[in-house]
Amino acid sequence: MPKRILIGTVVSDKTDKTVVVKVERKVKHPMYGKIIRRSKKYHAHDEANTYKTGETVRIQESAPHSKLKTWEVVDRVLAGKTAAVEADV
Questions:
Q1: What is the pLDDT of residues 6-34, one digit of tens each?
Q2: Does 73 map to a domain?
Q3: How many domains are contained in the chain?
Q4: pTM for the full predicted model
Q5: What separation in angstroms does the CA of 38 have from each of 29, 63, 68, 70, 89?
């Protein structure tokens, strides 16, 4: 069975080798039909403490590392598939 992969934003990196990632999804309200945002926070394993608050990352399901950590950070996601480039003036 393939492992689930989610994309979210790091909201906390205060604990050692752990980041908290907030994953948002959009869902249609069952009665009113309006699109609303739902979010959930996941604790993910970050072995080298490389990811900081505000970065967008990809997390993947893994075997449990602790009571709360069953995800691990795979890599950093570039915003809009383009990287910022400084101009040489």
A1: 999 999 999 999 999 999 999 999 999 99
A2: yes
A3: 1
A4: 0.82
A5: 11, 25, 20, 21, 44
